[in-house]
């Protein structure tokens, strides 16, 4: 029994590179397991504690070619996050605007998320984003810039950064 334990120890001391690689991989895995910074629930008189704290245009936003229609369709994914950086839903007024490459406004969609049926219809449970569809985008569009604003009842206005959506024709 003692000789078996000695031989295992000898294997590790004879191959220090293997031991170093194992330790490095273990440390890298531990370093990647950080959780998002938690700010906690909102201290406001809104509908619920974990109401949206930020919004952004999700990178899943894309151009698509609608069947039987001229021009392009742009599917915009709007993501809300609460104070703990978890995806959540909103209940206020959402306005999504789409701009041409030169900055000209192409379209704006005002959306009320207060209606539960409409809120449910726009929310994609897989991506945890709201999907807003814009049809009739000019055929020559190489890219568009998208921005969203959100106002929750009794709260301040939130605005996303402008996000560029490229057309990979």
Short description:
By secondary structure, the chain is of the alpha+beta class.
Break the fold down into its secondary structure elements and pairings.
Blueprint: H1 2-14, H2 16-31, E1 54-57, E2 62-64, E3 72-81, E4 87-88, E5 93-99, E6 105-112, H3 116-122, E7 123-124, E8 129-137, E9 143-151, E10 157-159, E11 163-166
Antiparallel strand pairs: 1-3, 2-3, 3-4, 3-8, 5-6, 5-9, 7-8, 9-10, 9-11
Characteristics:
about 170 residues, alpha+beta, six-stranded antiparallel β-sheet, 3 helices, five-stranded antiparallel β-sheet
Description:
The chain has 169 residues and is an alpha+beta fold. It has 2 domains: 30 residues; 113 residues, Macroglobulin (MG2) domain (Immunoglobulin-like), CATH 2.60.40.1930. It contains 3 helices and 11 strands; from the N terminus they run H-H-E-E-E-E-E-E-H-E-E-E-E-E. The strands form 2 sheets. Strands 1, 2, 3, 4, 7 and 8 form a 6-stranded antiparallel β-sheet that branches. Strands 5, 6, 9, 10 and 11 form a 5-stranded antiparallel β-sheet that branches. A hairpin with a 4-residue loop joins strand 7 and strand 8. The chain is extended and about 70 Å long. The mean pLDDT is 83.
């Amino acid at each position: 029994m003692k000789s078996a334990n000695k031989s295992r120890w000898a294997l590790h001391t004879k191959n220090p590179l293997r031991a170093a690689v194992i330790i490095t991989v273990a440390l890298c895995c531990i370093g990647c397991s950080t959780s998002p910074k938690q700010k906690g629930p909102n201290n406001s008189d809104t509908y619920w504690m974990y109401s949206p704290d930020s919004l952004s245009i999700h990178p899943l936003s894309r151009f698509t070619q609608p069947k039987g229609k001229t021009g392009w369709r742009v599917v915009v994914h709007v993501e809300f996050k609460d104070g703990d950086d978890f995806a959540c839903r909103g209940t206020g007024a959402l306005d999504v605007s789409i701009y041409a490459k030169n900055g000209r406004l192409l379209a704006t969609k005002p959306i009320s998320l207060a209606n539960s049926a409409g809120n449910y219809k726009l929310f994609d449970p897989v991506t945890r984003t709201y999907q807003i569809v814009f049809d009739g985008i000019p055929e020559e569009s190489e890219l568009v810039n998208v921005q969203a604003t959100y106002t929750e009842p009794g709260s301040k206005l939130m605005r996303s950064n402008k996000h560029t959506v490229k057309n990979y024709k």
